[in-house]
Amino acid sequence: MVYVTRRAEFSASHFYHNPDLGPEENQRIFGKLNNPHGHGHNYVLDVTVRGDVDTRTGMVVDLKDLKQVIEDEVIQAMDHRFLNEEVPAFREIIPTTENIAREIWRRLEGRIGAGQLHRVRLYETADLYVDYYGE
Known about the structure:
Shape: elongated
Strand content: 25-35%
CATH class: Alpha Beta
Distance between the termini: 21 Å
Low-confidence stretches: none
Number of domains: 1
Helix content: 25-40%
Structural class: alpha+beta
Number of helices: 4
């Protein structure tokens, strides 16, 4: 089994708000992250695919194809977007780093031609990242 990781970067803004909670509770839980004007991050995304090396091509996955899937499914949808308003999934769930990683997995799962999606790692800052391995 070989693991191959492709990296991409995107920028997006968001804020944390749970509509089931009142304003005071949202402020208490999320603090400045509850500002409806949002705040932004420069995210770094690592997508790892695992599989056996194809004897014909010598690859687990064609990295050009993997790059295109990431571009089509993640970058075009999330780069320079206000996630809460411009990405439909985040109208229903809080766009925490954890939930963004889960949404990226959902968008990529089943769209990787060769190999199997193994991990989505999303860096929010240099010292904070979330690993997601599917459900």
